[in-house]
Structures are given as C-alpha cells and as structure tokens.
C-alpha cells in the first residue's frame, strides 16, 4: 500500500458504504482526505478503471490526487497516483488473494500513456524495431546496476529487434547524487554521448554526495566527461525530468528498475532476451 495513503488517511474497508458509481468513489476519497486537518484537497480524479484478473466483482480504480499538505509552517503541493479496489459495497486500498497470498496491486497495470514511445526517450535500437522495452531507472540503484546495462547492451547490439526507451527515475531520498547524475545523462544523450549513459552504471561514486561540484569532479575524473554545469539546469532538462517522473506516477512506478516489454510489466527484467533474433548459420 502506498505510504502516501498511510500518512494522509486510512481508507479501510467500508462495508456499510454502497458504492453506486464512480462519483461515489471520488466523493468517498475526498471525504476521507478532508478529515485530515493537514490536508486541503485540490482535486481527485479517476484516470482509469480496470478489471482484476481472476477476481470477480472487484475493479481497480487508478486515482490521480492533487492536494496541499501542511506540516508545521511548511505547506507543500503533492500530486500522485494510487489504486483503490472497489466492489459494489466495499472499498479498500489493499486486496490480497487468499489462495496465493499475492498482493492484487502487483497484478494491476494502468494503460500506457500516449506518447510514451517518443524519440526523445529512445536510447538504443530503431524506433521501428520488432519489440519495445521501457525502463525506469536510477543509475545508482544496485538492482538497476545488475540488469539495466545488459538491457542497454542488447538493444545496442540488436537494433532491429529491440528499441529501448529510457526514463529517469532518480531515487533521491536513497541516492542524493543521482539527481545530478541523471542531469548529466540527459545532457550527454542529447549531445550524442550515449556511452556516458551506459558508463554511469559503473561509475564509482558515493551515492550520498549532494555537492554538485564534487559529483561533477568525479564524473570528469572517471568518465572524462565535463558538461557545462549551466546546461544541467537548463529548462529543457527540468522539463524532461518532470515529464519522466509524471509518466512514472501514471504507471504507478514505485521502485527501480521497472521494466516494460511490449507494453507489459516485466518483473523478471529478462524478457528482452527472448526478443533477440538468432543468427542464421
């Protein structure tokens, strides 16, 4: 269950509430959020309504929330997406298959946003390749470092088979240095230095670094690449990273690496291997 939901409100099973339609779901969420004095609700919308595979009588509602959260003297605007599970009379944030013990949330995948396969995110492979891979990644995430370089290599070596679309998802709370590194990667890719994007996954650096000058010094020393610091904060870079984060929210991406193969979430992160054509002898 989303930590955001936990921190703001408790949407427990409400057996006494008759959910007559989508409007009731929106009103229910607004009411629950508004009970928290720290929360001002700007908007609540249903962006998708999906059936749950193998479970009758329930639907998964993808909710987009826009709120202002006040804590002490600080006020922040938060925009995020999450899932609610709704039946005719019940609503809950968590649903578990009692036979398998599997969290139903892991079975739900929102529809791919339009334009997700745009050229600006194509890292390797041809746009008309037989298969499309989407990766949401943080170059300092240990799990990303174990799998993403191999996906990059496969798309680079088999451009007719795989088109790799790369989305930045820096986990700044865990790896502060990643915020600067993804900006370097964005600039490098635009300059045609895709090799820098690949090499970033092998860069030896303290992930806890926050000083941009020190981070750039490591990049220059280890990778021989020294972008103009002003470029890292150009409006187009800010726009790109904001877009990537928003796309991740729409797809409910909460961790890295998150991989999609031909539009379906690939929890194994290895489905791309099946897409590589075997060379004829």
Instruction: Give the name of the CATH architecture of the largest domain.
Output: 3-Layer(aba) Sandwich
What is the CATH homology-level superfamily of the largest domain?
Glutaredoxin
The total number of structural domains is 2
Fraction in beta strands: 15-25%
Helix content: 25-40%
What fold name stands as the CATH topology of the largest domain? Glutaredoxin
On the 0 to 100 scale, the average pLDDT is: 88
Low-confidence stretches: 9-20
The main sheet orders its strands as 5-7-6-8-9
Number of strands: 9
Ends apart, CA distance between termini? 51 Å
What order do the SSEs take from the amino end to the carboxyl end, as H and E?
A: HHEEEEEEHEHHHHEE
**Class by alpha and beta content:** alpha+beta
Radius of gyration: 21 Å
Q: Identify the CATH class of the largest domain.
A: Alpha Beta
Please characterize this protein's 3D structure.
The chain is α+β, with helices and mostly antiparallel strands and 281 residues long. It has helices at residues 3-8, 22-34, 142-157, 178-190, 194-199, 212-223, 235-250, and strands at residues 39-52, 55-71, 74-86, 91-92, 122-124, 131-137, 162-168, 258-261, 264-265. It has a five-stranded mixed sheet, with helices on both faces. A four-stranded antiparallel sheet has the order 1-2-3-4. It is globular, with a radius of gyration of 21 Å.
């Amino acid at each position: 269950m989303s930590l955001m939901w936990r921190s703001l409100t408790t949407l427990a099973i409400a057996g006494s509430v008759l959910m007559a339609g989508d409007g009731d779901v929106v009103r229910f969420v607004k009411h629950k959020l508004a009970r928290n004095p720290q929360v001002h609700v700007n908007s609540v919308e249903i962006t998708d309504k999906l059936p749950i595979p193998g479970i009758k009588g329930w639907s998964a509602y993808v909710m987009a929330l826009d709120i202002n959260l006040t804590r002490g003297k600080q006020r922040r605007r938060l925009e995020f997406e999450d899932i609610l599970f709704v039946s005719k009379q019940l609503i809950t944030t968590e649903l578990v298959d009692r036979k398998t013990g599997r969290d139903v949330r892991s079975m739900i995948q929102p529809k791919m946003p339009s334009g997700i396969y745009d050229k600006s995110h194509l890292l390797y492979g041809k746009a008309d390749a037989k298969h499309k891979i989407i990766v949401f990644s943080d170059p300092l995430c240990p799990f990303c470092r174990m799998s993403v370089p191999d996906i990059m290599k496969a798309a680079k070596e088999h451009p007719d088979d795989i088109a790799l679309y790369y989305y930045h998802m820096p986990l700044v709370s865990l790896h502060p240095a990643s915020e600067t590194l993804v900006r370097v990667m964005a600039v490098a890719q635009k300059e045609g230095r895709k090799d820098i994007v690949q090499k970033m996954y092998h860069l030896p650096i303290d992930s806890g670094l926050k000083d941009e000058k020190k981070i750039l010094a490591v990049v220059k020393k280890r990778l021989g690449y020294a972008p103009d610091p002003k470029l890292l904060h150009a409006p187009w870079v800010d726009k790109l990273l904001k877009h990537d984060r928003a796309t991740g929210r729409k797809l409910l991406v909460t961790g890295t690496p998150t991989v999609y193969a031909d539009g379906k979430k690939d929890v194994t992160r290895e489905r791309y291997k099946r897409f590589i054509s075997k060379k004829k002898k």
